[in-house]
Amino acid sequence: MANEAQPCPCDIGDRIEYGGLGQEVQVEHIKAYLSKPPVDTGKAVIVIHDIFGWELPNTRYITDMITGNGYTAILPDFFVGQGAWNPADDFSTPFFAEWVKSRNARKIDKEFDAVLRYLRQQCGAQRIGVVGFCWGGIGVHHVMSTYSDVRAGVCVYGIVRNFGDIYNLKNPTLFIFAENDVAIPLEHVAQLTQKLKEHCKVEYQIKTFSGQTHGFVHRKREDCAPEDKPYIEEARRNLIEWLNKYV
User: Fold this and answer.
1) CB 112 within 8 A of CB 91
2) What is the structure's pLDDT at 4?
3) What is the pLDDT of residue 6?
């Protein structure tokens, strides 16, 4: 759980029971979960997982949700077999800080390039976007600051303090935050807003959802609390609408 020295509220949340509609595939040196729509649209989305890894059913559910809107969606193992964070372990220990350092979300280019090749060569993708959650949100920010051929990004509660002071995004990016996120104070969101205003030349949007906490978009059940359901649905709808507009 969170603490002042190492704020990270990434408890597993509501781990849903979900088998998935896609299949696991090998993409060069990494494994991935691949979900395809009934009709090929030439559009694809790469999903970058959080610290709980590519096998988390919740993230596979979101991957299939994206596919249901007309995209080939792929959820690669960006940890490359190193293993996901164990929810039973203590976030407050120095071990978590070392664990995170060994999995740098801004150093995923080798894996990302492999997935791009796979989507283009094996899936016929012509237009590609990226979505990521928490650790994966850092990855989205990196991708959207680096890859001019990725047409749109959605960064869902990416840890702002790890963005590397880079704000010249290449293509349109949506940032989704939670008002009561211990890992991402609102002052960090305000600083990001100001930096993007000063440096970003492409379309972007920052949305902060009232009363919500870290993980609400993909690690909270829609029926866990009636007051949360509209925010979860709106955030997921915004994610899809952004992809539809720019990919």
Assistant:
1) no
2) 33
3) 41
- Residue 5 pLDDT level (bands cut at 50, 70, 90): very low
Chain-wide mean pLDDT for the chain?
90
Within 10 A of 230 (CB to CB), how many other CB atoms are there? 11
| CA atoms of 247 and 244, how far apart (whole Å) | 6
Residues labelled catalytic: 134, 181, 214
pTM tops 0.85? yes
Q: Write the CB contacts of 236 (distance below 8 Å, at least 6 apart in sequence).
A: 62, 65, 217
d(CA 41, CA 39): 6
Strands of the sheet containing 173-178, edge to edge, are: 23-27, 30-35, 72-76, 43-48, 127-133, 152-156, 173-178, 204-209
- CA dist., res. 95 & res. 121, Å (int): 40
pLDDT score, position 136: 97
Residue 233: strand pairing partners:
none
